[in-house]
Write a structure and sequence with these properties.
Layout (H helix, E strand, L loop, with lengths): L1 H28 L4 H4 L2 H23 L7 H25 L2 E6 L4 E5 L26 E5 L5 H12 L11 E3 L4 H7 L1 E2 H5 L3 H13 L5 E8 L2 E8 L5 E5 L5
Parallel strand pairs: 1-3, 2-6
Antiparallel strand pairs: 1-2, 3-4, 5-6, 6-7, 7-8
Helix pairs in contact: 1-3, 1-4, 3-4
Length: 246
């Protein structure tokens, strides 16, 4: 019973710590559905498995008040847990979304890891885009360059798989492109017609957000596409829905 009690206390402490990290991820680094879009759930399962399950199980196995090495054993278990948690949090932080970039008819997500150094950041069209956000992605737009040299650079970049969303020198304020977003956006009914699952997801969203009209644009990260829901009047970014998009 002493072992079970110790393991239970360890489980509660571990769950609290992992819960705080999860809140940080879901509401600060990956808000509005970015967590699911970027596949954060897979790493979270690993973190939870190591920190919430494995640690208390090890405590259950080794806890014995009569053991001379008990403090050392518990310290090693704690160190393993902390190391796993810090590693997981570091990976999530390095892969966090820092820009959500409107490119005419869709959004593309830029990750912190897309910038290997500050070279491109320092070329940003505004100072506020020269540093990476710690509290969710900045909502911006990217427009086609007018400078012939930059145009040529973008052609070469496209050949290597790089898009406008990783070149802050192309960024302009989202406010200046709201009408572009609304012009290209489509009604949510288009998504509803694609599948029963889509209809159910969108109706749940509408129940949570009644009395407004909404439209959507695709939002893309890598090979994953979901729907970015916008206010149909002003193009405010509401949230990301995990639905099939055309």
């Amino acid at each position: 019973m002493v072992r079970v009690k110790a393991a239970f206390i360890h489980l509660l402490l571990s769950a609290c710590v992992v819960g705080l990290v999860l809140v940080l991820m879901l509401f600060v680094w990956y808000p509005h559905g970015f967590f699911k879009l970027l596949g954060g759930g897979d790493l979270l399962y690993i973190i939870a498995g190591v920190d919430v399950c494995l640690g208390p199980l090890l405590t259950l196995a080794v806890f014995n008040p009569a053991k001379k090495s008990l403090k050392l054993d518990l310290a090693i278990i704690g160190l393993l847990q902390i190391s796993a948690l810090l590693y997981g949090a570091h990976v999530m932080f390095q892969s966090r979304p820092v820009f959500s970039v409107l490119e005419e008819n869709l959004f593309k997500v830029t990750l912190a890891s897309d910038f290997k150094d500050d070279l491109e950041l320092n070329k940003a069209s505004q100072d506020k885009w020269k540093s990476l956000s710690w509290s969710g992605p900045e909502l911006v737009a990217a427009v086609a360059p007018t400078d012939p040299k930059v145009k040529q650079e973008m052609v070469f970049a496209a050949g290597s798989g790089a898009d406008w969303n990783v070149f802050p020198k192309l960024f302009v304020s989202y406010d200046s492109q709201r009408q572009v977003a609304l012009r290209n956006a489509k009604p949510l009914n288009v998504l509803k017609a694609l599948s029963v699952e889509n209809r159910a997801s969108i109706e749940r969203f509408e129940q949570k957000h009644p009395y407004k009209a909404y439209v959507y644009l695709p939002i893309v990260s890598g090979y994953i596409a979901m729907a970015a829901v916008l206010d149909a009047k002003n193009a405010d970014f509401i949230e990301i829905l995990d639905v099939e998009t055309p």
